Amino acid sequence: MSLAKFWKRLTDLGIVEIIAIKPNTPDFENFYKIYVDAFPDPSERDSKEWIAEYTSDKYGKESINEGHLVKVIAIKSKKAGIVGFAITETIAATRNTAFGIIWYVVSAKDFFRHGLGSILVQKAIVEMEHIAKEIFHRNYGGTLIEVNDPTKMTREQIEEDTIDPRHRLVFWFNLHFFEADFGYAQPIKPGEEGEAVRYLMQMFRPEYKHWQKSMSIPADEYSVILRKFLEFGIEVNPDKEPESIRMLSEIKSKGEVKLLYSVHKAKGATSRIKAFSG
Fold this sequence. Notes:
Blueprint: H1 3-12, E1 15-20, H2 26-38, H3 48-54, H4 57-66, E2 68-77, E3 81-92, E4 97-107, H5 116-134, E5 139-148, H6 155-160, H7 165-174, E6 178-180, E7 200-206, H8 209-214, E8 216-218, H9 219-234, H10 242-254, E9 256-260
Parallel strand pairs: 4-5
Antiparallel strand pairs: 1-2, 2-3, 3-4, 5-7, 6-7, 6-9, 8-9
């Protein structure tokens, strides 16, 4: 469905605004309630205080100087308030390129299956591209996400997931995100106990035409993207953390990171994968 048709559907539902969430506002409280409903386990979501700090004007100015900016993009209804949101981060990677991360995309329960997720992703990408060009003065190379890989999950992990991970993959494939072909594992933050999470994958939606044409990203460029993701997103030192060192070494040895249309990993999903030509 086109962006225009999605927007018409949302307008029909009384949804007329795309806003950036700011702390200490009724919209922030509304947003965080939906966030908690979607992720009742505190270990699976960012704290209210963390998001309030990261979306404040004061922190925004400081983080821009560091080369990254967090924004919560939300859809607001006149009748129901905030009905969906995306937590995003735009990062200046190289002298010429910035990229975006979509950390969460969440719809309020009463608005499932109305196209909110797709419209949020598309609007978030537009906003991150704007930040890349107008704030960081760089081209926008693409968007990175981290999702569960159903082929690496146990039956118990799949059953405990908030959404069937196969359906989630279909959603992202339909929005032209592709699996980044390397052995990704999410490192453990300093001071935390446990092991690296190995049932995840990184997916990337390229905006550069040459990356789209080759369906790959050169190793030196993806290494910078991964380094910035680990540094700002996971908050580890990629030059000292063992899993980070392993991943960067693997990418260097490959020479490139291929972008795979690995739809076989969504086998069994009832939602439909649209035909892809690329």
